[in-house]
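Exercise 7b. Backbone tokens:
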């Protein structure tokens, strides 16, 4: 049994949705494109899962986000692509189906249902999976009240567990953005939250201690507790298979009615190991998002691509990069001669409680803070080798975010850090 397509997108997440839109804008013919996804729904804006999706029901809140409201490509103010849209454009959807092997020499994919799907051009958009406790030698992922958060099924389960744990204690393992966003949502749902992570402060890969303490202070004011500098050592599990307590390496124990684990992700490259060149844990591509096999492109979290601005290959795990790299790959596939190399300014954002921040560029070098850290608007610049390379802003306006993005892209020379600190946000606004 087999079907053949000109283009196949493997994976049905954010990048797949934005790639599909770009194909149709560039003149896709019906029957040419197929999307294969392990998920049962058409592509959606994954960031909604840790934000609007987890909001409680009730008079104080807008109704929690549910599909179809956040299908791609609403996150970039584009058309919302519903199942009907794919049908109208003659795009074949193979949902709820895992691809179990890829033969790049024959240009075929074999699904878990036994179907062989062949392509002329393959776009790999398999994203990443959540790292499991077992990969760190710990047990408990299969307990009824232990949750991860990567896809709609995880988020639906998290909401169910949250409802059954209402009024109880949650332990969030991991201080990255998944941990931070989940902790905020749990607190909003009136669950007592303790966050546990090994670093000295939250969001350690990006935040400076000063930035982190602003957020941590606010979380504390909402009842969230922080246990830092230690890690999980084991769970206490009752006879029903539920975690009742979390034991930490420092010898302490936290009571738990539920646990959320956000300890990082791993790109889904396994189908291509030995067939494509890998780098930085992802599939290495050129400025056209083309891999070491000229018929195979890779986009989104799974792609390691040249970031021109910093002159090096990077793999980013952010939604904006997924959207833009996907569109760029399709431009390069359909219009190769008119498509320049991808020139991307790394961008990441998060929203927790009433906070909202954006970060552009690179968090390397010396840091200069600015703004009122006890107020609503504050930020930081990163200066490396005499140039501005990164900018962070909390609580900015649209114009202010555009200004820090523009300033970061320009990489202006910075001679005097004290002067940059004095100018603060004004530096970006006047550049
Ligand atoms: P994904 O969206 O993960 O899609 C991958 C798809 O491939 C999935 O549908 C998966 O089922 C499918 N797949 C994988 N392997 C196979 C296979 N073998 N066969 C069939 N299908 C397969 N980024 C931000 O910048 N800001 C945020 O606030 C933010 N919030 C987030 C919140 C959450 C809860 C999560 C999980 C991520 C968040 N991100 C955020 C990151 C962002 O969502 C990702 O960078 C983005 O989804 C990557 O898109 P992608 O298409 O590469 O991968």
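Sequence design result:
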């Amino acid at each position: 049994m087999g079907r053949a397509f000109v283009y196949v997108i493997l994976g049905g997440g954010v990048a797949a949705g934005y790639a599909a839109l770009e194909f149709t804008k560039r003149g896709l013919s019906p029957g040419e494109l197929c999307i294969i996804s392990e998920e049962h729904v058409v592509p959606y804006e994954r960031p909604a899962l840790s934000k609007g999706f987890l909001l409680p029901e009730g008079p104080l809140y807008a109704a929690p986000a549910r599909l179809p409201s956040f299908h791609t490509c609403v996150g970039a103010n584009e058309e919302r692509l519903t199942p009907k849209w794919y049908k109208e454009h003659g795009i074949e959807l193979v949902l709820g189906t895992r691809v179990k092997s890829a033969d790049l020499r024959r240009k075929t994919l074999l699904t878990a249902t036994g179907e062989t799907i062949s392509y002329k051009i393959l776009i790999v958009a398999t994203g990443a999976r959540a790292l499991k406790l077992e990969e760190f030698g710990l047990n408990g992922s299969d307990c009824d009240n232990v949750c991860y958060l990567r896809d709609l099924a995880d988020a639906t389960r998290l909401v169910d567990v949250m409802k059954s744990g209402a009024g109880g204690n949650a332990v969030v393992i991991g201080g990255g953005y998944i941990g931070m966003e989940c902790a905020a949502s749990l607190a909003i749902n009136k669950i007592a939250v303790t966050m546990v992570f090994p670093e000295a402060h939250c969001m350690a890969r990006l935040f400076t201690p000063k930035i982190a303490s602003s957020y941590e202070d606010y979380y504390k004011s909402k009842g969230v507790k922080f246990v830092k500098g230690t890690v999980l050592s084991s769970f206490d599990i009752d006879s029903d298979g539920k975690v009742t307590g979390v034991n930490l390496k420092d010898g302490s124990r936290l009571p738990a009615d539920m646990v959320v684990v956000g300890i990082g992700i791993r790109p889904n490259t396994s189908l291509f190991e030995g067939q494509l060149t890998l780098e930085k844990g992802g599939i290495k591509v050129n400025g056209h998002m083309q891999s070491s096999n000229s018929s195979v492109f890779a986009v989104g979290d799974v792609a390691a691509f040249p970031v021109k601005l910093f002159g090096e290959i990077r793999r980013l795990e952010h939604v904006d990069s997924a959207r833009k790299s996907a569109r760029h790959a399709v431009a390069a596939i359909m219009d190769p001669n008119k498509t320049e190399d991808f020139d991307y300014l790394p961008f990441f954002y998060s929203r927790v409680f009433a906070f909202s921040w954006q970060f552009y560029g690179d968090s390397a070098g010396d840091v200069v803070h600015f703004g009122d850290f006890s107020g609503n608007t504050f930020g930081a610049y990163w200066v490396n080798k005499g140039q501005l390379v990164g900018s962070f802003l909390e609580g900015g306006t649209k114009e202010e975010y555009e200004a820090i993005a523009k300033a970061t892209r320009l990489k202006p020379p910075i001679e005097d850090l004290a002067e940059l600190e004095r100018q603060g946000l004004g530096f970006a606004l006047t550049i």
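Instructor comment: The chain has nine helices and 26 strands. The pocket of flavin-adenine dinucleotide is lined by residues 11-16, 36-39, 46-47, 49-50, 98-99, 125-128, 149-150, 178, 268, 271, 300-302, 317-320, 322, 348-350 (CB under 6 Å).
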